[in-house]
Amino acid sequence: MNVNDSEKAASLLEKEGYVQTSEVEKADLIIVNTCSVRDKAEQKVHSLLGRLRRLKNGENTAIIGVMGCLAQQWGKGFFKRCPHINFVCGTHNIHRIPSLVKEAQLRKKYIEAVNFNGHVPSLDLCVPASKGKISSYVTIMQGCNNFCSYCIVPYVRGREESRPSGDIIREVQRLTEKGVQEIILLGQNVNSYGQTLEEETGFPELLGKIRDLHSVNRIRFTTSHPKDFSDDLINSFAEIDELCEHIHLPVQSGCNEVLEKMRRRYTVEEYLAKVERLRSICPDISITSDVIVGFPGEEEKYFQKTIDLVKKVRFDNIFSFKYSDRPGVASQRFSDKIPEDMKNKRLALLQDIQAKLTLEKNRAQEGKTEQVLVEGTSKGSDADIMGRTRGNRIVNFKGSSRLIGKTVQVKILRGYAHSLRGEMI
Ligand code: 5AD
Ligand code: SF4
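That is the input. Now the predicted structure with 5'-deoxyadenosine docked in place:
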């Protein structure tokens, strides 16, 4: 979602004549897009802003802005801590970035735009299909009403708002006309898409409407909440050929006591039943997840249940995080916090187990023939190109860069920890 927001901001500024540079010292305008979902992300922003302060201490007169969740959370606080910042732009105000920049240039004083509007104007912003773009995000909703007890998102992104399906379809159409092959539908909880709309389009219907365009090669979506992951949506994996066989379904914990304190509103048993149904409809689906370790009150036996679940589901991969307190969320006030060294140990153990599972899963691809959408040249070698399987695995193989943007058949020769090696057929 943040990448998508950065693209929106960049496209608004390009319309004003700005061009992007990768050399920060040469920039006239620097905008830091921020995430505040975990403490570590927040620390990264502060160290980057520290580096920019040193840059501005010299001759540099660049305008510096901060956007995103941390901007929303801190508002005025940013200026007190970082007086070298010229403006702060919250999550509902991306559309105002060009005018904020102009104002900052004219008034040379700190400006902030962090008000929440009933309607989120930036939801209507579309990302341009730049030449050669193969894959594009399309925002279908923003905000979240779930208030999981550890999560800051509902506070910094506001209440859930879905975008009318007609606008989404038009954006997808425009992107595919420009050659985009893959559409990734974005939202904090795409499964509850449509609840704020007058029209009766739920998420499975939206997927059907996109399929009916017959112009999209691949459809993906993120993120799903297990509690809203319906049978209709599971059936979509059988009914919509364009829907890729990959689902990111954050479980967070394998222990019902912890899930309840997290306010996730599903049980381990319900989660497992959904996974089973998904696999019965689509046996090769790749399933990834998010897991938090060291949530307040997570006893050793509770953590062990998470390990058991990870081994039972055999996820293709997981993103795992140490719990961190976020300001204002419910779990910040929970008393039984887990010591940092314990969290570190649990995270290392979990990651070790998952690394082995991921390697096993990648090895199990050997000998299969996969449809691969070529995305670019490989990092490791100029002679190789890379792309993704429908299950979202990265494959490197010998081939010409002329194949970028094309879908080719690749035989998988070898599975590694983070990618596959293949041979084009
Ligand atoms: N501490 C640790 N991880 C968190 N996440 C969200 N909030 C926190 C927190 N306070 C993780 C969840 C979520 C992912 C985007 O970030 O796993 O799915
Ligand atoms: Fe946060 Fe829960 Fe909403 Fe996901 S569903 S954004 S974890 S509150």
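The radius of gyration is 22 Å.
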